[in-house]
Design goal:
Layout: H1 4-20, H2 23-37, H3 41-46, H4 58-71, H5 93-106, H6 108-115, H7 127-141, E1 145-150, E2 164-169, E3 172-176, E4 184-191, E5 203-210, H8 219-227, H9 234-249, E6 253-256, H10 259-268, E7 275-281, H11 289-305, E8 312-318, E9 327-333, E10 342-348, E11 355-358
Parallel strand pairs: 1-5, 1-7, 2-4, 4-11, 5-6, 7-8
Antiparallel strand pairs: 2-3, 8-9, 9-10
Helix pairs in contact: 1-2, 2-4, 2-5, 4-8, 10-11
The structure holds S-adenosylmethionine.
Residues 120-123, 126, 150-153, 157, 209-212, 258-259, 281-283, 286-287, 291 line the site of S-adenosylmethionine (SAM).
Length: 365
């Protein structure tokens, strides 16, 4: 029996693609919807989906497989994908439809295998916002950073100090980081005057955890990471490819772990003479209540044990829940500011890091 929730999920994602500006992904999903409604290969592939197709991102998995196949060399698909050197044009939609349905039909088993992957990106644009937090924590403690990222995906944001930054602010442009970096991150910081950025942020160590860490040395995993970035989103793709080229020379250390338990271990084993910065971007909405409570209680325990030479910071560029806005904030326990530490709300931001609305919180700290 056909699952009508699939059609609803496809319609919702088609609308989202329209709003987010991806005509190509919108067209791919419209093709999937038409085929589903006429009981074609898409209905065969999605029949009996066990969970909720919208919550499980079934439309993104369908579009992801098509992009994955284009990147893998599918000759019918490639001319429509900017990521493969092609262009999508509305008058080419019939040819795209033939290529999409042909791809699903010829590679049904591969498609089913691909659908088991969780849609998973790694957006380096977010470092254009996180940078304020890293710099402030370094400035306030005067210590090297021991970076520990929860939900790190491929770990690309652990390499933030290897990127160059061009930031537009209320006081004019500023730049930070190596000028010869393969990756330049652009962002806009509005609102209050930004704090002076530390010219040199020393990174003592960096490690990330993820339930599904992406091994960029594995060709399929790498291609899947590329495939989750929509095929006509050229700026995001360029950022990803540049960051991957940097990570190839200095692969970040990643472990497969649930953040809930991992955070406690990072806090317990933190080194002396460094500030341990536990941070996350766009991870909090994916955690359930018990995982969030485990993380919160690990930080509460840190507040009880912290000393001036083992400070801890919790840096978030995240939503509190799915329907709230993204924001940047941190809590810092210095060993001299009590078990609650100090919470600093820096401001709301774009979920990909394109802008940050700075609050006036820097003068007094
Ligand atoms: C939207 S992605 C964000 C990835 C990265 N932080 C970024 O900003 O690009 C969310 C990540 O959180 C990971 N994740 C979800 N639940 C997790 C958990 N309980 N423990 C560790 N990682 C988790 C997912 O596997 C995924 O890689």
């Amino acid at each position: 029996m056909k699952n009508d929730k699939i059609a609803t999920a496809l319609e919702a994602q088609i609308h989202a693609c329209d709003v987010l500006g991806s005509p190509l992904t919108k067209a791919v999903l419209e093709i999937c919807l038409n085929d589903f409604l006429t009981d074609g290969i898409v209905a065969t592939l999605t029949r009996g989906w066990a969970g909720d197709p919208l919550d499980d991102n079934v439309p993104l998995r369908l579009a992801g497989f098509i992009h994955f196949s284009a990147l893998g060399g599918d000759a019918g698909l490639r001319p429509h994908f900017a990521s493969c050197g092609g262009t999508f044009q509305a008058q080419g939609k019939d040819a795209l439809a033939r290529a999409v349905l042909d791809c699903f039909t010829r590679h049904e088993a591969d498609a089913r295998r691909f659908f088991r992957r969780t849609p998973q990106t790694n957006e380096t644009g977010r470092t254009g916002v996180l940078l304020v937090g890293f710099s402030e924590i370094a400035r306030r403690t005067g210590l090297p950073l021991n970076l520990a990222e929860m939900g790190a995906s491929a770990g690309l944001n652990l390499l933030f100090d290897k990127f160059h930054y061009q930031i537009e602010t209320a006081n004019g442009s500023l730049s930070w980081g190596p000028r010869d970096s393969a990756l330049t991150i652009s962002s806009q910081w509005r609102g209050a005057s930004p704090p002076p950025l530390q010219s040199d942020i020393e990174i003592a160590a960096r490690v990330g955890c993820d339930l599904f860490p992406v091994d960029i040395g594995d060709a399929e995993a790498r291609r899947a990471l590329e495939a989750w970035v929509w095929g006509d989103m050229s700026e995001r793709r360029a950022r990803l490819l540049a960051a991957l080229s940097i990570a190839d020379n200095a692969p970040p250390k990643l472990v497969r772990a649930d953040a809930a338990g991992w955070v406690a271990a990072q806090i317990m084993n933190r080194p002396r003479g460094q500030v341990t910065v536990l941070y996350h971007s766009l991870v909090w909405p994916y955690l359930d209540v018990s995982q969030r409570m485990a993380i919160e209680s690990s930080f509460a325990q840190a507040g009880e044990t912290v000393t001036p030479d083992t400070p801890v910071a919790w840096l978030k560029m995240d939503h509190d829940h799915v329907r709230s806005f993204s924001h940047l904030s941190y809590r810092l326990w210095t060993g001299e500011n009590g078990p609650e530490g100090e919470h600093v709300f820096i401001g709301p931001c774009h979920p990909h890091g394109a802008d940050l609305e700075l609050r006036d919180v820097f003068a007094e700290s």
